[in-house]
Amino acid sequence: MAGRITLTMIKPHAIEDGNLGNILAKILEAGFRISAMKLLRLSLKQAQEFYKIHDGREFYKPLTEFMSNGPIVAVILEKENAVQDFRKLIGTTDPTTAEEDTIRKLFGLNTKENAVHGSDSDENAKLEADFFFSLLERY
Ligand code: ADP
Ligand code: MG
């Protein structure tokens, strides 16, 4: 059975571009419930830890530097079939190939600065939610 949670991060450029509210509105309009949310800045070490599955890829260094270069908003989202439905709402990694009206198409700049993160599996959603939030921080 598909899980009920996914983890997103609104990436630094999207916050700097003034799109935090627009992105949260799209997420809520799509029927997701916010279970936990915080604004924070990741250290380089924390960004490397979060993205460790990509260690060794050519984009690992620019990605982790970019993600630790400004504030992010981390959010646990709840909905039936959360992981899959959220991936559909955000679109493909490269915003130029993303479907119309997806979050990455609307607010992404390029393959690296693509506005939002979305978990890729139920297992990773749980690991990523635990990375940012204790049980006391969830509702
Ligand atoms: P997704 O976020 O769609 O699940 P990946 O897990 O493959 O994509 O990559 C994680 C993040 O790394 C992407 O969201 C993007 O910010 C960055 N990234 C991925 N591929 C590239 C690339 N070819 N060049 C630059 N950055 C990339
Ligand atoms: Mg991914």
Main attributes of the structure:
139 residues, alpha+beta, Alpha-Beta Plaits, 7 helices, 4 strands, 40% helix, 17% strand, binds adenosine-5'-diphosphate, binds magnesium ion
Order of SSEs, N→C? Answer: EHHEHHEHHEH
Relevant CATH superfamily = Nucleoside diphosphate kinase-like domain
Terminal CA distance reads 22 Å
Helix content range: 25-40%
Sheet-strand content, in percent, reads 15-25%
Number of domains: 1
Q: Describe the largest sheet.
A: 4 strands, antiparallel
Mean pLDDT: 97
Identify the strand order in the major beta sheet: 2-3-1-4
Strand elements, count: 4
How many whole angstroms does the radius of gyration measure?
14 Å
Bound molecules: adenosine-5'-diphosphate, magnesium ion
Unreliable sequence segments: none
Counted by DSSP, the helix tally is: 7
The CATH C-level name is: Alpha Beta
CATH topology: Alpha-Beta Plaits
Structural class by sheet pairing and helices: alpha+beta
CATH architecture field: 2-Layer Sandwich
Shape: globular
Outline of the structure:
By secondary structure, this protein is of the alpha+beta class. The model has no long low-confidence stretch (mean pLDDT about 95). The chain is built from 7 helices and 4 strands; from the N terminus they run βααβααβααβα.
Structure overview:
- The protein has 139 residues and is an alpha+beta fold.
- It has a single domain, classed as Nucleoside diphosphate kinase-like domain (Alpha-Beta Plaits, 2-Layer Sandwich).
- Helix content is 40%, strand content 17%.
- It contains seven helices and four strands.
- The protein has helices at 12-16, 20-29, 44-50, 60-67, 82-90, 103-107, 122-132; strands spanning 5-10, 33-40, 72-78, 116-118.
- The protein has a four-stranded antiparallel β-sheet with strand order 2-3-1-4.
- Helix 3 (44-50) crosses helix 4.
- The two termini are 22 Å apart.
- The mean pLDDT is 97.
- Adenosine-5'-diphosphate (ADP) binds at residues 59, 63, 93, 111-112, 114, 117, 120.
